[in-house]
Each structure stands twice: as C-alpha cells, then as structure tokens.
TrEMBL record:
Assembly description: Homodimer.
Keyword Lipoprotein: no
Record protein name field: Adenosylmethionine-8-amino-7-oxononanoate aminotransferase
EC number(s) stated in the UniProt entry for this protein: 2.6.1.62
Binding residues for pyridoxal 5'-phosphate: G114, S115, D248, P311, T312
Modified residues (N6-(pyridoxal phosphate)lysine): K277
Pfam families: Aminotran_3 (PF00202)
Species assigned in the record: Amycolatopsis magusensis
Length: 427
C-alpha cells in the first residue's frame, strides 16, 4: 500500500483542490474511511464531522439504507442516457420533489450539480421571456452577499464586492445588485428595505428575467440569516412587476434551517426552485431545478419550444435511487425534532464564544451554528485547534461555523461546539 507520506506528496503535485493553489501548499487531511459522523484519517485520528461534507451528508456516512439503495441500483443499471429514455428512480424522484416542495412547482429538471441547476433555472427564466415575446428581459436582480455557485452564470449573481469572484469582473454578465436584507431571523421586518426592493425591481422590470436569492440563509456569502418576510415581499413585488422569482435552496433544502424548504418559512412558491447538496444525502452529485407549469408553458410557446439543456449524466439512476432513499430516510423520522435538538445543542454549546474577545456574533438557526469574528480567521490555527479537539470544520473569511449531519448525537454537537469555541479563542 502506498504510504501516507507518498500519497500526500502525489496529492500536492497532481491534485488540484477547491479554492487551492497548484501545487498545493497546505497538506489536506487524508481520509481513509467515514462512518456515521466520523471521518477516519490515515494517521489513525478520528474526527467528528461538523461540515456534513459541505452541508450534504445529512444522514452521515455509510448509512446502511443508502448503501443498500446504491448497491441495489448498481445491480440493475448505473447509467443510461436520459434523452429518449427514462427510468423509475428518476420518475419517482421527480414525483417526490413535486410533492415535497411548495405547491405549484410541477416540473423537474435533474442536473449534475448545484451550480448547473442555477444555470438551468436562469435559462428557464430567460427562455420564458424570449418565448413569450419579451427578449429584452435577460438580466437578474439579486441582493449582495449571495453565493450561487462557481460556473459563470451563478458567479454573475455572487457578491461582486471583493470576494473571490471579483476576479471575473468584466467577463461576467452584468446583473443588478441591491443591498442584502437586514440581518436576523427574528428581527422585525424593515419596511424601508422592502420599499427599496419594490423601487429597484419596478425600475428594472423591463430588463429583468428574474430575481434570484437564497431564502432566509445566505450561506457561503457570509452565513447570515434574515426575516422570511423579505422573501415573502419579493414574491409579491416580482409578481406585481412581471418578473420571475428563483429561490436557491441548494444549501437550505431538506430541513437545514428548520423548515423542509426555507420557502416554507415564508409560505410562498417561487417560479423556479433549485435544490442539491442534501438531495442524495451527500452520496452523489445531483441537483434539480423545479418550475411551475406557467414557466414550462411559456417556453413551449417559443420558436424553439424545448429547454435548451441536456447534460450527459442527467437523471443518473444511481444518484436518483440514493436520493429517493435519502428523502425516504428523512421523512421516516421526525427530522424537525432532530434539527431542533441540534439547534438547541448549538445554542448552548456556542454561547460561551459570545464572551470571547474578537468575537463579533454567535448565531444559530436550525442545524447551522456560526461564530463570526471581528477579523479574518487564521486558518492554520483554527484547523489545528479543532482537529486537536477531534473535530472537523472548515472556516472561511471571518466565520467558524458548523452544519453537522442530522444524526449527530448531543455529545457530537457538544464536541463540535467546544472545538469551535476553542478555535474562536485562538484563531
Ligand atoms: N447555491 C448555493 C446556495 C450553494 O450553497 C452552493 C454551494 O455551496 C451552490 C449553489 C453551488 O452548488 P454546487 O457546489 O453543487 O455546484
């Protein structure tokens, strides 16, 4: 067997990691296997995973039900093209997604990743206006501080203000940005902010295909929570102004914020909804863009009456089968009680961080716990401290945060919290 040192040397030389330099400078941790909420490293250490592998592995790793679903599907077929062919796992998944998501979303386009589902959602909206005789409506309006993925169209609606995507300024399609909503899930609605949204959307309505936002939780753009009333207001304002509404629930979908979909906090149905990440319980890459019959009918009235998109691995049966099993697992348990249990563990566990010098804010919503510092996190120190505490989380910017698997026990949540508080004190 290749030694740990040799593997890491090869990794540094050949493997390009997300948001990393090439060749690699900071050696990643070498994971040998993962089970439940634990990552087992090649050097013998075991870490409690506070990240759910970028918010996807809600049932933890090697779940027997998901493993069985995958093996069973592999025994039938791993993949067939989706053009001209279909299969039960994808049909069942589409039906389930329609049943679970807000009323009125009827059609499901299965995609390979979250970013691609955003591309598809935007295409749906642009094609809708093109097909219904208003081709000038091709821009998007979004609030600042958002994150929608790393391919070009999603990057164009990520916050342009100095983040990693500012590198692409000038090459991205120009969108309309408005300030992000006032922070705080429980804070009262700021009517002057809603009025500003109404003014901006009305002023740009003639050129807007859609408004696109992350409802209630702005994730990778800053881990901020806001009053669901802002999303409700967006629904009313977009409808009044003939603009479509895309909700990006790739991070919030499947219970993370304490509602099965964050749109549920607001009680609204968007024109297009994107889901991904936890869709397959973190097993395989799959996402989906769901839309209303109105959007689909509009597109079908066009000169080209089809959606101009068709990825090779669309509707992959393995991913569909494991998604069906993962959603089944979620719904077969009292998932809300589990998320609430984690929420209360994070509230008490992270509370001591609020008294530390250098900590700006501690905030918790559903199974999301965030400690925001008043300075950028020193990544090397934070990683050392949390791993010494037997925990894996990956901070960014000024944030040390966790989105643990829903199967984390109270002891796991306490361990993650202790590690984050310790890291906040040193990093
Ligand atoms: N949208 C949101 C809200 C996300 O959090 C992410 C990923 O973090 C994406 C889109 C992109 O998804 P993917 O990484 O699967 O392309």
């Amino acid at each position: 067997m290749t030694s740990q040192e040799e593997l890491l040397a090869l990794d540094a030389r050949h493997v390009w990691h997300p948001y990393g330099p090439m060749p690699g400078t900071v050696p990643p941790l070498l994971v040998r296997e993962a089970e439940g909420v634990r990552l087992r490293l090649a050097d013998g250490r075991e870490l409690v995973d506070g990240m759910s592998s970028w918010w996807a592995a809600v049932h933890g790793y090697r779940h027997p039900v998901l493993d069985a679903a995958l093996a069973e599907q592999a025994g039938r077929m791993s993949h067939v093209m989706f053009g001209g062919l279909t299969h039960e796992p994808a049909i069942a998944l589409a039906r389930t997604l329609v049943d679970l998501t807000p009323d009125g979303l009827e059609h499901v386009f299965l995609c390979d990743s979250g970013s691609v589902s955003i591309e598809v959602a935007v295409k749906m909206c642009m094609q809708y206006w093109q097909s219904t005789g208003q081709p000038a409506k091709r821009r998007l309006l979004t609030w600042r501080g958002g994150y929608h993925g790393d391919t070009f169209q999603p990057m164009s609606v990520c916050d342009p203000g100095g983040g990693m995507h500012s590198l692409w300024k000038g090459t991205l399609t120009e969108q309309v940005f408005v300030p992000e909503p006032p922070a705080g899930f429980d804070e009262p609605l700021d009517q002057s902010y809603v009025d500003m949204l109404a003014r901006e959307i009305a002023a740009h309505a003639h050129e807007l295909a859609a408004v696109i936002v992350e409802p209630v939780v702005q994730g990778a753009g800053g881990m901020r929570f806001h009053n669901p009333g802002y999303v409700r207001a967006l629904r009313e304002i977009t409808a009044e102004n003939g603009v479509l509404l895309i909700l990006d629930e790739i991070a919030t979908g499947f219970g993370r914020s304490g509602s099965l979909f964050a749109a549920g906090h607001a009680g609204i149905t968007p024109d297009v909804l994107c889901v991904g990440k936890a869709l397959t319980g973190g097993y395989l890459s799959m996402a989906a863009a769901l839309c209303t019959p109105e959007v689909a009918d509009g597109i079908s009235r066009g000169e080209l009456p089809v959606l101009a998109h068709g990825p090779t691995f669309m509707g992959n049966p393995l991913a569909s089968a494991v998604a069906n099993a993962s959603i089944g697992l979620l719904l077969d348990q009292d998932w809300l009680a589990e998320v609430r249990r984690i929420e209360s563990g994070l509230r008490s566990g992270l509370a001591p961080a609020a008294d530390l010098p250098g900590v700006r804010e501690v905030r918790v919503l559903g199974a999301i716990g965030v400690v925001q510092l008043d300075h950028p996190v020193d990544m090397a120190t934070a990683t050392r401290v949390v791993t010494e505490h037997g925990v894996w989380v990956r901070p960014f910017r000024d944030l040390i945060y966790t989105m643990p698997p829903y199967v984390s026990t109270d002891a796991d949540v306490a361990a993650i919290s202790r590690a984050i508080v310790a890291a906040a004190g040193e990093a």
